[in-house]
């Protein structure tokens, strides 16, 4: 279930360059953008939204949810300015509502286990082993769940994996491993919990995705949206993505 958040401003820069930015975007003060964002990207996108408000005065209200929930809301309400999706594939169900999109960062799926890898899992095939319990994302509603299904199906082992639960969002998948509800998860790289480690395997290399920012045709706030799209391609934003475990595009 998504949560509507009015994000507060962070600290602005006192550099002359930052002052120039504020001077040229005073008209955004008091304006609001309404954005849908995949739940797994809550931390970096929240920081991005905070910094944009600090520099421009434009507030960003965000719904964080899984892809299916966001797609349904876009279709049923006809509202919103922007959709930050877990992969470009998630734009297809709402393609008629998208006016254009840009690619932001790589979205990398990984196999994660508890720190120390107590079961000695070396790759996806080991998920079929005796005593291995796995939590995956919802294969119908969330991008990482769809990727997990595809990867395990391509190996011909999906039905042999002991999937003890399906989670609606990447943070829920991470929590399942963190609190010992399972031995392994397939999750986005940036969502791996602190008490877990990534298994060094090439098994998921073919399933790397790209996070897009899609402008919605329902948007009426042309000025603020154009400014935010430009901001998303800036070095400060790329730095935020990188420090949260994402890989920026060339």
TrEMBL record:
Domain of life: Bacteria
UniProt keyword annotations, A-Z: Metal-binding, Signal
A biological process term (GO) from this entry: molybdate ion transport
InterPro entries with a match to the protein in the record: ModA (IPR005950), ModA/WtpA (IPR050682)
GO molecular function ontology, one term from the record: molybdate ion binding
The keyword Oxidoreductase belongs to this UniProt entry's keyword annotation: no
Family: Belongs to the bacterial solute-binding protein ModA family.
Name used for this protein in its record: Molybdate ABC transporter substrate-binding protein
Protein source organism: Acetobacterium wieringae
């Amino acid at each position: 279930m998504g949560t509507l958040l009015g994000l507060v401003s962070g600290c602005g820069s006192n550099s002359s360059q930052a002052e120039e930015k504020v001077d040229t975007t005073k008209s955004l003060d008091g304006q609001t953008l309404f954005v849908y964002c995949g739940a797994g990207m809550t931390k970096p996108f929240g920081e991005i939204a905070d910094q944009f408000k600090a520099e421009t005065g434009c507030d960003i209200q965000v719904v964080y949810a899984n892809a299916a929930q966001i797609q349904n809301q876009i279709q049923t309400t006809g509202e919103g300015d922007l959709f930050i999706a877990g992969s470009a594939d998630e734009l297809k169900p709402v393609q008629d509502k998208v006016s254009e999109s840009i690619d932001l960062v790589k979205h990398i799926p990984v196999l994660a286990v508890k720190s120390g890898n107590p079961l000695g899992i070396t790759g996806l095939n080991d998920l079929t082993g005796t005593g291995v319990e796995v939590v995956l994302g919802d294969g119908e509603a969330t991008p990482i769940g769809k990727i997990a299904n595809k990867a395990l199906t391509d190996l011909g082992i999906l039905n042999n994996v002991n999937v003890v639960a399906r989670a609606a969002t990447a943070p829920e998948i991470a929590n399942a491993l963190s609190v010992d509800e399972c031995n392994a998860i397939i999750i986005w790289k940036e969502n791996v919990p602190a008490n877990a480690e990534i298994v060094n395997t090439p098994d998921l290399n073919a399933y790397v995705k790209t996070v897009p920012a899609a402008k919605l045709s329902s948007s009426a706030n042309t000025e603020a949206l154009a400014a935010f799209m430009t901001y998303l391609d800036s070095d400060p934003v790329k730095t935020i993505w990188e420090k949260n475990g994402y890989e920026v595009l060339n």
